[in-house]
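request received
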Amino acid sequence: MSLTETTWDEARELAERYPQSRSALLPMLHLVQSVEGSVTSDGIALCADVLDLTTAEVAAVATFYTMYKRHNTGKHHVGVCTNTLCGLLGGDAIWKAVSEDLGAGHDETTADGLFSLERIECQAACTHAPVVTIDWEFFDDSTVEGVRAALKKLKKGEDVQSTRGPVVRGINATERQLAGFDDGEVHASAIDDKMLAGLNAAKALGQTLPKSEV
Amino acid sequence: MTNTPVELVNVTIDGVEMQVPKGTLVIRAAEQIGVQIPRFCDHPLLEPVAACRACLVEIEGQPKPQPSCAVTVTEGMKVRTQHSSVVADEAQKGVMEFLLINHPLDCPVCDKGGECPLQNQAMSNGRSESRFDGPKREFEKPINVSAQILLDRERCVSCARCTRFADQVAGDPMIALLERGAHQQVGISDDDPFDSYYSGNTIQICPVGALTSAKYRFRSRPFDLVSVPTTCEHCASGCSLRTDVRRGVVQRRLAWDDAQVNEEWNCDKGRFAFPYAQEGRLTTPLVRGEDGVLHAASWPEAIAAAAAGLNKARGGRAAVLAGGRHTAEDAYALSKFARGVLGTDDIDFRARPHSAEEATFLAARVAGLGLGVTYADLEAAAHVVLVAFEPEDESPIVQLRLRKAVRRGRTHVTAVASHVTEGLYKLNASMIEAKPGAEVAALAAADINDSTVVLVGERAATVPGLLSELVRITDQAGAKLAWIPRRAGERAAIDAGLLPGLLPGGRLVTDEGARHYVASVWGVDAGLIPATAGRDFSGIVGAAAADAYEALLVTGFDVDDTAHPDATLAALQRAPFVVALEQRPTAVTALANVVLPVATVTEKSGTFINWEGRARQFAQVLRENNTLTDARVLAMIADAMDSLIGRQDVAQVREEIARLANHNGPRAAAPAVEATVVDGLTLGTWNQLLDHGTMQAGEPFLAATAREPLARVSAETATAHGLSTGDTAVISTTKGSISLTVQVIDGVDNTVWIPTNSEGSHVRVALGAAHGTPVTLSKGGAH
Amino acid sequence: MVLTPILTAHWDEADSYTLAGYKRHHGYVAFAKALKTDPDAIIQTVKDTGLRGRGGAGFPTGMKWGFVPQNDGKPHYLVVNADESEPGACKDIPLMLANPHSLIEGVAIASYAIRANHAFIYIRGEVPHVIRRVRHAVDEAYRAGLLGENIQGSGFDLDVVVHAGAGAYICGEETALLDSLEGRRGQPRLKPPFPAVAGLYASPTVINNVETIANIPYIMRNGVDWFRQWGTEKSPGFKLFAVSGHVQRPGIYEAALGTTFRELLEHAGGIRKGRKLKFWVPGGSSVPMLTEEHLDLPMTYEDMAAAGTMLGTGTPMVFDETTSVLKAVSRWLQFYKHESCGKCTPCREGTYWISDLLKRLEKGEGKMEDLGTIEDLCRQISGRSFCALGDAAATPFPAAMKFFRDEFEAGISTPADQAFNPLSSTVFVKAKG
Ligand SMILES: Cc1cc2nc3c(=O)[nH]c(=O)nc-3n(C[C@H](O)[C@H](O)[C@H](O)COP(=O)(O)O)c2cc1C
Ligand code: SF4
Ligand code: FES
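response:
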């Protein structure tokens, strides 16, 4: 894919959303990445042009944030949290298995161009450790087998449902969502027992508050 | 200047009580009592970032050590630096240890070795040995961030001085910190090089050897260099420089700290364009023989030949053509030689487009007036109006000072110009759009009042009525007006009287008293000095073609810079006898009868008068060199002509100039020329800072950072001529044409702008045109 | 102490994230009330509740709002810090998934109080579904006339922009967040000026955590005394505690501040079967760890401080004896190294060096002097770095050394994976005995 007039128009639209247009740079980089799969030189030039910045200023930002990739990526982004808690609770084992299965290491893409693999940091889902993300959707309480199965399905082109979020549709679709162009997947389920652990415990113990108060 | 009293606060540093102005940074207050706190990111002309943490000190009442580069003093503050605080000392040593773990410690092969703040402060404020024994971060080395600037990333300490300079001072954020954490590094984006006019400053302020120049890399060691302060010869900004020499060869030039003028900066032309003075020089006098060929000659031979030729032209049959690049001393000697020896008033330094209106303006409002509008005035002005003047290209330090003022938020810049240039953009300038040649009418909108400073550039000369109108408006409004020439020698040339009708100090040849006084100082017969104004540059060229002269004395210019290069060359060819005083072989020396090699700025001492009217004296850099100055050569010729004008050494000349400094007699009246209306499409043009100027010869790395020459046209004009960005535009006059790639810009219609003297765009040679000249525009074939 | 499902009260309702679901339980009643109240009075109410910021530092929220200069002629901004990226912190993300309207209503009230007509919610980029839900809530609120121009005829205008980050923990630091939101590298800013005076676009700005702001509607509706019935004098109210790690029932537990950790742990079903507690970290990896002896500490700002640690984000991570503390600390330092923004020397170089030494120890290839060196290096970072990330990086090691020095010493000869079978700490392993 390459950057068409549509992308330019969308980039200008993003710039309009902020009191000062430069604020749109992060969304804009998500946007160009959603089209090209990475932040290319053309993408940088587009952002620089729309926001009246030098390409160095844009590159400075694009290289600061880990979600922006400067090289080719796969159709799906697979992230395995290997921060302390997830790592110890199973993330390390998942990483090892997935990395061996796919024959790709950190920040690498499989030969078939289907998956990019990344060791990721804490996803604010520690209660659901070990956490894996596919296209940045949560795959909570992951197991080696579970992740294997999901990747197999994706390879076959089948739908894979995330645990707190929608069916994954490829990293570019997610990036577009992040850029600020809504995909309408808001209603996909997001609540699970762990999020309700306290509420359920309170109910069981009769510790809920009178309705009038909350 | 306002006289609000500075509020002082009491602080104690290492037990020493002192008073400093409120708002002073702790690190500067400490300097005042001789306490040197280590620092890397700190730079007095950049906004504090407190990033490197080398400068931590203990401040009473604060739980943590504080960065002295970012904390300002408050009343009663008690500071303990590394000298009196274990906390501060340990904090500093800790930071120093951290800074060195990923540093390659390759001092023996590093350009900075010997003058390196990291090396020095590691010795003074670091631990004796590092405990780090792990793998160091590695980068591919070195990378070019521009043709001129190289970056060794592994040496970088992330102080961000270079990137902050580029962003804050130059307004050219084309280098930036990339990546993050331990991978953070300075860099450019892919193929967009750091082609800033000011890029060299980053090398100088880099506190390690991360940034180096292609020009100087591996050329020398600091301790092998002899440093001499000097003044830049390239433009009228008047930068103080330091020239570093090893065994008689200039190795590099740096900006010298001069708070009143260039602060600590200079431009890349001033920094890197010095090879012209070293390679391809004229080394011996040349005399044209009977065979019509130039032969090397001895000095006495050559002087005798020059004297013989000039002797025939005494009493008004000679003219003097000079470029605008002489020192005050040399210009003065030329003025004296012309009037007092040759007895001619046909003299002009304006080897560029000029006008009679301009000469009158210069005589009335510039000559001999000394310090006028200053850099400090620019910084303090509420409103600065730029007319026919592009500071970034034409006086780069003026650009920096204006940018500084604008960033402070108290100064607003308005430009009467045809389009928003990169330079004007960086000044956030408001535009009053004016077609080249039509600036006069636009002035009415400029809101000039008594808190305005108006800066006008050299190309005002080609816009009839512009200087007249500026004088009228600024006089009426009580505004300040400054004329900013491009060349380093123009102000001095005017003071010396290198204009027809003008004697030193703003005196007029028509003023009998002035003639007598000048003659008495010169020790010549007052009758020798012509009593009526002679011809200007183009007048001389015209008269020479009509055989008016027996001889021409020419010095210090490039024919191609003159208003009509063909005519100039033809006149020189026509003249029976030409004496040329030059530094390098040129088209002029090629056809001169006698060629006398003269000293460049490094080989002599002298004075440049910058645009402010500030005298910038400098000493001889290459001391063992005995190349003669123009003044000395002229004195020798005069001697041979039996006309004693004295030794003409610097001291003597300065003393004479001083005697002629204060003139209270009649001066020229300001010009009153009517504006003319120019119809149709006109040419806008000026010299870009980096171009084909002869004094930039021999520096390919610098040349490679020049801006691409483009033909700039507005969208409407482009459409009207069937052009769009990337097409080839053909700009023509009856004389010829220039083809350049089109760049569609925001600007006034019916205008095409091209650089005056860049690759493929030699306006005067190819078009015989100047700023404001009607030209035709059409679409060319594929470029 | 008791569980207090307030923010979490209706998370089990299928439409809890929609406007309809939220309105069913008094949603936006507080905002309507606020619009009829003097903004200063709202600030005073928040001051009176003693609400403390839930982003980690516990700064009094009302006081922060009070710093915003009034009638300064500049636009004011509210910025919600939804960057939740601290290892162990996982409370704001569920809140925004399940109950985004409490945040939006809080944003509306807070903006009204500080006279902001523009608010931003900066959400870390790696959570698209959270972004969908918050954006959806904002859209719903606009459509219902709860945001936009002249809201409910009050004359108050408010625009809310949901902004996605792009992967950088440092952007949780409030001034780095502002630079990031301005489209720059997320590196912290020099203070002063403080954001309350010169924040976003150099204008007065309040930055608050998601949970802090989500508290506001409930406070506005129920009042100071209601809020203060929970917690302590210095830590009033309730809090979302997210208990993770080697516990039977990890999850979100909303409870009164002052609840002891033992009580929380009991709610979470205790340590997983057959194991015992080794250490726990009360509020994100940036706060010092505690052990069994601290189980009865009340979860308050002051009690945690007295024990030499911090409540932080109030999201305890629990580790049992299968855990290699050396590996845990080493991994945290890899994280800090990865996330160091690079601006200041101590953090940038210190995390590079320490993480290298810890890796060596983890492999059993350390040197005797390494432990002393790391302790020294932590001292060289702590209090000397530019921002609190550096301090945070210097925290885990000394805290762990206090209790588990021997494990680090073992790193001179024994690889961590040999001392602790990595499989046994996973959730996959079958319960012991
Ligand atoms: C490195 C670092 C990361 C932080 N991350 C977050 C974060 O993700 N969310 C948050 O609310 N506060 C975070 N903070 C704290 C914020 O700087 C700030 O104190 C907080 O957002 C203020 O909101 P509050 O007063 O409502 O707690 C972080 C601080 C630091 C130093
Ligand atoms: S402590 Fe320094 S390097 Fe680390 S995140 Fe803060 S400013 Fe950046
Ligand atoms: S000189 Fe003060 S922090 Fe760098």
